[in-house]
Amino acid sequence: MNILPTTLYAAIAHETRLRCLLLLLEYEELCVCELTHTIGAAQPTISRHLALLREAELVSDRREGLWIYYRVNPALPSWVTQVLRETARGVAGLAPFADDLIALQAMPNRPGAPRCA
Amino acid sequence: MNILPTTLYAAIAHETRLRCLLLLLEYEELCVCELTHTIGAAQPTISRHLALLREAELVSDRREGLWIYYRVNPALPSWVTQVLRETARGVAGLAPFADDLIALQAMPNRPGAPRCA
DNA sequence: TCCATATATATCGCATACAGTATATTCTGT
DNA sequence: ACAGAATATACTGTATGCGATATATATGGA
């Protein structure tokens, strides 16, 4: 597959979307309610941002009953994956990204938890 | 120094700015007229985009007579540099980025040329 | 001092991104 | 068939990014 750099960077230029992506990078697969809870934004907001990530082909989704699970698109070119990894390294310990990783684990009643890495 | 990921990605989400940065990554130091000629946009357009890159602290500038030379900020955190390198790898051979590298060398009367790497 | 060159900034008009709210869709259990 | 839960989409108002054009600033030379 093929991703334009401007598409990638426009997508992750928004903090909410970057937080989603970095969470997915760590946790493999998460449903919308987990992301919504962790990030603390309104559900339609998260859903819309996920839709943008989906349209940019940065994430893929799969339905399982009521829940829709998102994950980082496994077919991403390696340079994109590397960019995401370097970003994760760059924001390690930085708010709000660092807190997200912790906040998710503290969430009660996660659908299929723990899926943590 | 410290750079917010959203600042970085908003900056390079625009093709013109990314082209500037990748050219600077290859050529160490370039003046505005070289970037203007290579990218083929209006001078105020290039200047404004360079100003944005400067405000984001992604590039530094230095005046030498009439010319103002830009370079990638040497104080960038390593993860940012890595992101730029991976991007360069990702767009290798891709228009318009690949052509830029060639177009610059074909430019006549470059101020202090060649500064090529 | 006047002019030309290189670069920067200001202004305007348009398109697009975003949050918030309301509503629609899809599935599960009864 | 119905109700409720999880998620998606539609709509609206506001703000911001962008290109185009005009103008300002800085430097060097006659």
Write down the secondary-structure element order of chain A: HHEHHEEHH
The pLDDT mean of chain A sits at 95
Give the helix level of chain A as a range of percent.
40-55%
Individual helix count of chain A: 6
- Which structural category do the helix and sheet elements of chain A fall into? mainly alpha
- CATH homologous superfamily annotation of chain A: Winged helix-like DNA-binding domain superfamily/Winged helix DNA-binding domain
Spatial ordering of strands, largest sheet of chain A? 1-3-2
Q: Report the principal-axis shape of chain A.
A: globular
CATH architecture of chain A, by name, is: Orthogonal Bundle
What name does the CATH topology of chain A carry? Answer: Arc Repressor Mutant, subunit A
Highest CATH level, the class of chain A: Mainly Alpha
Q: What is the subunit organization of this protein?
A: homodimer
Report, as a whole number of angstroms, the end-to-end distance of chain A. 26 Å
Strand content of chain A: 5-15%
Rg over C-alpha atoms of chain A, rounded to the nearest angstrom? 13 Å
Largest sheet of chain A: 3 strands, antiparallel
